[in-house]
Design goal:
Layout lengths: L2 E5 L4 H12 L3 E6 L11 E5 L4 H5 L6 E4 L11 H21 L4 E7 L9 H18 L5 E7 L1 E3 L8 H11 L3 E4 L5 E2 L1 E3 H13 L10 E4 L5 E2 H11 L5 E4 L17 H5 L8 H13 L3
Parallel strand pairs: 1-2, 1-4, 2-3, 4-5, 5-6, 6-11, 7-10, 8-13
Antiparallel strand pairs: 9-12
Helix pairs in contact: 1-6, 3-4, 7-9
Length: 290
Amino acid sequence: MKTVLVTGATGFIGGHVVRALLAAGWTVHAVTRSTSDAGSLKDVTLHDSATDPDAIFARGPFDVILLLAASYGRGSEPPSAMLETNVFFPLTLLERAVAAKVPAVVHADTCFTTDYKYLRPYTLSKKQFGQWGRILTDGTATRFVNLVLHHPYGPGDRPGKFVPGIIRECLNAVGDIALTLGEQRKDFIYVGDVAMAFLTLLENLDKLPTNVTDVDCGTGHSVSIRTLVEIIHRLTSSRALLRFGALSYREGEIMLSHADVSVLRALGWEPRISLEEGLRWTLREDFGIS
């Protein structure tokens, strides 16, 4: 039985990943804030983030450290708080992992690049940690891997994200919904498939080529924002009028992105849930619509 230490276990991605790990027989330890709601983390050994990291590692040994916690720097949160979550605290764990010769550290990265102005501080922090991961594990017994997530969606996502936001607009709006032309094509992946990608990666790290650090996680196919919105509009039986073209694109809008999933496929993983099926699950679980 293998043991994993997880950060971000109470988050959207983390919750699904922890359930997949437990179902596969892993022993799971989670580092959480005292303010986090950890009530859903059954059969998980919890560690307060304020605890001395040496004390946490004394509860090991760990086969993998899985870094899933993320701060997006939204609202009034200062950059220093975001860096604490995305860089400084995981860096402390990475240092301890290298010292303890933990076989692998896996980091949840973003597909956004720093030249995209929206969420630039968040993206910069994630890319900076990826650089630290490569530097600190170079020549050590610890392997560092970035799982680069494209556009996860599904039950339990934050209300401010695009998919749950559009669902709420379609359910509540009685007039027009102003949108861009919706020509942007993105790789939306159901969160359950993301969780299985993490599990597949963790259970097959020995099969991952030694020169591979970044591993894409998506479906391998992109779909237009217009198509996504139209599916949600239909599934919610919305009476709102979709006004495509009423809004301008953001400056520097990314018009096409999709994952290269060849590495994950070589490890035996495949995305299983179609976009419409995933949206139906989301509507059922989060909005009570079947």
